[in-house]
Amino acid sequence: MDFLTVERYVDLLAAELDAVAAPPGPTRRLGVVDHMPSALDLVRRDLHAAAAELSFGKEAGKLSFATDLARETASYLYAAGAEHRCWRRWAALTAFGHAINDQILAACPYAILGGEWCLLESMSPLTPESGPPSAIALWRLAINATATDDLPDSDIVDQSWRTLLTAIPSGERTAIDQALGNIAEFWIAESEGDWEFYHPRSAPDFDPEPCAAAALARRYGWSPVSMAREVIRYLEPGLANGFPGELYPRLPALPCFESDRDGD
């Protein structure tokens, strides 16, 4: 079977990067103007170095490194004001990097934000790695598994994720508003305003899991009704319209799918 190898993944990122145009703006994060266009130049330099080392058989660590570069690019393009289809393509590419590395929970929010619905469906039979309750809840939402009994409810964030597991599939608009609002407000307060700034080489400059949950809720037909403006801004990566065309299954197969079949 033809697989998406590390080398082919790096080549794919390089080809996609060549097609990226300068973001038209307006910018979405403070301070990003100071890093335009040098942020993409640094990614291009690092991808070239990774490809060169791979050509000499030095594969160790390159997949994680390339995945980080894809995430960094998605973050920069979002912050710099790229069209949503553009930065979401790089969210999708981030998901593929994680999936090649058998990091299913890590891939999940980026697959959602990138609109890779066929990829998520293909990953649904896989057993994910261990992770925080929010990542587990998002994964279950993505594959239509709504069990909540084993998830904690010790604070308002945990309770809100449990609520989303049932409220999103059933279309309980008020409950979705409240739960997503609780999660966003908690992390906005924790960041003490830092979430509004661009952080070079420290991606992402958006919160993948709650934003992905908002995108899933939108897919079920929900739209915010009574959310604070700041919360809507925080969740914008998931609320905004505009997805790229799906890469999967046009790309070669992922190794994790073959290993899962072999284990059956």
Question: What features would you describe in this structure?
Answer:
It contains 13 helices and no strands. By secondary structure, it is an all-alpha fold. It has one domain (6-243, 253-262). The chain has helices at 6-18, 38-55, 62-80, 84-100, 104-113, 117-123, 133-142, 156-170, 173-191, 208-219, 229-234, 236-239, 255-262. The protein is 60% helix and 0% strand.
Provide the helix percentage: 55-70%
Order of helices and strands: HHHHHHHHHHHHH
Question: Main sheet, how many strands, which sense, barrel?
Answer: none
Structural class designation: mainly alpha
User: How far is the N terminus from the C terminus?
Assistant: 17 Å
Question: What is the molecular shape?
Answer: globular
Q: How many domain modules?
A: 1
Radius of gyration: 18 Å
Q: Compute the average pLDDT.
A: 92
**Can you count the helices?**
13
Number of strands: 0
Q: Assess the beta-strand content as a share of residues.
A: under 5%
Please mark out the parts with pLDDT under 50 across 5 or more consecutive residues, or reply none.
Answer: 260-264
Brief write-up:
The protein is 60% helix and 0% strand.
